[in-house]
């Protein structure tokens, strides 16, 4: 037994030369687990071997996939093709997504029109009318024009000349095309060019236009004797070319050499090109002639333009006499404001609305009428292939003519109450019975030349658009406030004439129509907020009314102070004498 004990001791402890087996596991580490038997140990070994084999295989496949991915990415980067594959992958994903949507369900897309792109003024008027009628205490005529001219002593660029005229270089005949004020531009430019070239000007001929359809001659609209007399020290003017000149051309004006001059040509062109031909032929004509001289011209040319426009051109006695009568009647109807009245130039005739391509609230009927008017007035101009008309963009850019309703909203917002007398200068208003009703509700004292004058008084002028426009021009010129609602020659000439009459101040309200489009299209704006914006707009017009002439602006709109029109000693500063 002792040997057996030693034998057990040796088998557990071992000798120094023989390695002994590891000690049994501690109960604390073993968790009290029983040592598995021989069969369980064998089974666990086989499972561990299988798992190790599977893990090795998975690791091999993962490594292979990573190597393949890196190889593919390296190849793509080397060829920079990744930038081509990325959009294709995005499109493929979107197609897969869209293919997964059911075909019987259509997504709802909500679109909102841009602010100021839709005509919603009638809805605004209906919503604000009660507040507007309750706010009728202000009187803008009592507070308007706080600004004064700040450019020093106002001296228009007109000075009298007593020098005798040198021998003429020849005769110039021009055809003035367009309406009243476009013809006026032609007349004044013709005077300036004839004076500069030292030529004799034949009284301009008015070209009959298919739109205005007015056969009036110069003497039907202007006082011809006054025109010739006022310019006698500056330009020779005759009513026709002498017979000895006309004999050379068979007494046929079409045989006379005609210059086709580009619009806004500089005065240098007339000196270098027109003058030699004038001296050679002794008689030339220029047709058409509207806007054929640049605004930027030497002082001697600008002075002649001013002299012709503001002094020499007086309306013929029948027009002037009726105009004075209407001005007196207008002042009588505005007795509550000491004879002061507003003049509004409204451009809402059918042809103006059609040309603008704007959309209002007339629906399909309006569209048919406007399409017809455009085709009659401008055949094919608006239906050319590739032409895109965007009414919303036109309105947002402030290019749409203001309706009578919008004019009323604007003026009431600017502080003019319903007792303000208004003279409306306009042609035949489009759908006047419907469109004029809101304006008359807001301003019941509104007048036109047709309401101020009797049928008998208007009869000599009624079939002549230029003569009717001349009456409007005269009544507007002497108003306390002139309101322009659309661009054009009429307001530009009138603003300049009013500056000439009122010591440099045009006394004109020229609204910001882009801003108006946004204000009138705002469904949440209240009356007080609208009025605040419009009063600021009026104040801005007041401040702009005293501006001096800027470069390349019309001398007819900005009659220069004396400091702008001093004759300098540069080239082209003196008229050209006979050769």
Automatic annotation (TrEMBL):
Stretches of Low complexity bias are at 37-46
Q: Which GO terms describe its biological process?
A: fucose metabolic process
Q: Does the keyword Transmembrane apply?
A: yes
MF-aspect GO terms: glycosyltransferase activity
**Highest taxon listed in the record's lineage:** Eukaryota
Q: Name one Pfam family in it.
A: O-FucT
State the InterPro entries in the record. Answer: FucosylTrfase_pln (IPR024709), GDP-Fuc_O-FucTrfase (IPR019378)
Segments forming a coiled coil = none
Name the keywords, alphabetized: Carbohydrate metabolism, Fucose metabolism, Glycosyltransferase, Membrane, Transferase, Transmembrane, Transmembrane helix
Transmembrane segment boundaries: 82-103
**Positions of region (Disordered):** 1-46
The record's annotation in PANTHER family points to:
O-FUCOSYLTRANSFERASE FAMILY PROTEIN
Instruction: Give the family per the record.
Output: Belongs to the glycosyltransferase GT106 family.
What's the protein called, per UniProt?
O-fucosyltransferase family protein
Q: Which organism is it from?
A: Lolium multiflorum (Italian ryegrass)
